[in-house]
Amino acid sequence: MRRAVCPGSYDPATNGHLDVIERASALFDEVVVAVLVNQNKKGLFAIEERLDLLREITSELPNVRVDSWQGLLVDYCVQNDIASIAKGVRVVSDFDYELQMAQMNRRLTGVETLFMPTSPEYSFLSSSLVKEVAAHGGDVSHLVPETVHKRLLQKFA
């Protein structure tokens, strides 16, 4: 079975994230969307909220499951028999950073990283940008799944 993990903070999940997850699900038998827990960062959404939102927006993808992890992603991969990491890259600076991580991950455990260029309509999109615009009352409804948009409106009401 070909398995991959799509890691991220997903705070919040965007249409760009969903695009990468959907594309990865067409390439692999199973895709795990892993919300990486960083105790040093205070997110807008709690980990459980992110997991719930991701489960809802990926519910139409039968080969996708959602999980969380604290620690090295490659340790998660080894413990869960996952050979590949699927990552979306938006710009060259993303690639520069992600390439170093991919090389380190491969060196540590042999886990390979697949880079997928972001679809052009999402090349500018980031969770941080969505949060900033939403916090100032801007319309982000076209940038995030409907469920996420509703929760953002509740957070910033």
From TrEMBL:
Q: EC top class, in one word?
A: transferase
Main location as per UniProt = cytoplasm
UniProt KW keywords: ATP-binding, Coenzyme A biosynthesis, Cytoplasm, Magnesium, Nucleotide-binding, Nucleotidyltransferase, Transferase
Family membership: Belongs to the bacterial CoaD family.
Q: How does it assemble?
A: Homohexamer.
The record's function comment reads:
Reversibly transfers an adenylyl group from ATP to 4'-phosphopantetheine, yielding dephospho-CoA (dPCoA) and pyrophosphate.
How is this protein named in the record?
Phosphopantetheine adenylyltransferase
Which gene name belongs to this protein? coaD
